[in-house]
Structures are given as structure tokens and as C-alpha cells.
Amino acid sequence: MKPLGWWLRHVHELLESSMARALEPESLTRRQWQVLNTIALGARTPAEIDVALAPFGSTSAQLGELRERGWVAETGELTGEGREAHARVEARVEEFRTSVTEGVSDDDYRTTIRTLERCAANLEPA
Questions:
Q1: Spatial CB neighbours of 43, under 8 Å, sequence gap ≥ 6
Q2: Which of 3, 23, 63, 117 has its CA 20 to 30 A from that of 36?
Q3: pTM, whole model, 2 decimals?
Q4: In angstroms, rounded to a whole number, what is the distance separating the alpha carbons of residues 32 and 35?
Q5: Distance (Å, rounded) from C-alpha 38 to C-alpha 82?
């Protein structure tokens, strides 16, 4: 049996490459999607977006790119075009997420998440 670290790395790489393919029709990166979705969920300032996406570092470049596309207004809200794009991409992301867990029962999924949370807690500095 391969160790946990091997599986985490392998699944991470597969998630990244599969998500890239799902977002490709919109010429969107995963980080851009995360910023777009965070704004759709209510974040309005660059600081709020960075807090929500803290594990991924600064999001200023992605926010700038979304503004250049006309999807995010200077007020921090999604434009009409941004809301339409978000709806399209959200549907793709939901399809992607469903495909990732196909054949995994709800109980198995919850157990996996709880196990990973416990492993993370065990590794966090005291």
C-alpha cells in the first residue's frame, strides 16, 4: 500500500490538471475561478479575498485579470458579464466535483475528510 503522502500528492496533481481542463473553455485558471467565486459569495475588497483564499497567497494578479475581462467592477462586485461567467463556470465546477467523487458514498467521503482534517491537525505546529 502506498503511503498517505504519495496519495495526497497524486490526487492533488490530478485535481489540478483535471480542473484546468474543466476551466479551459473559459480561458480561466483555478486561482481566477477561486477569486471569481469568492467575490460571488460576497467578498468585495482585495483584503477580504486574500483572507478567504489565504492558503493560496496574494490574489491581486487574478483580481486584476478578472477586472480586465470586465467581470469585476471597481466596486468589487461582479458585473453582469461576471455574473453570467460565474454561472457558466460554476456549472462546470459542479460537474467536475461530482465526477471526482463518483462511486464514493457520502459516509466514505465524510470519513475521508475527517481523516484528512485529523492528519492536518496532527501536523500543525503547537
A1: 49, 52, 76
A2: 117
A3: 0.84
A4: 5
A5: 12
pLDDT tens, position by position, 77-103 = 999 999 999 999 999 999 999 999 999
Tell me how far CA of residue 97 lies from CA of 24, 46, 91, in angstroms. Answer: 16, 27, 10
Q: What are phi and psi of 26, to 5 degrees?
A: -100, 5
Question: Which residues are paired to 72 by β-bridges?
Answer: 78
Reading the block at residue 54, the C-alpha cell is: 489565504
User: From CA 126, how far away is CA 123, in angstroms rounded?
Assistant: 9
Amino acid at 39: I
Q: pLDDT tens, 41-85?
A: 999 999 999 999 998 899 999 999 999 999 999 999 999 999 999
Q: Are 86 and 36 in contact (CB under 8 A)?
A: yes
C-alpha span between 116 and 112 (Å, rounded): 6
CB atoms within 10 A of CB 88: 13
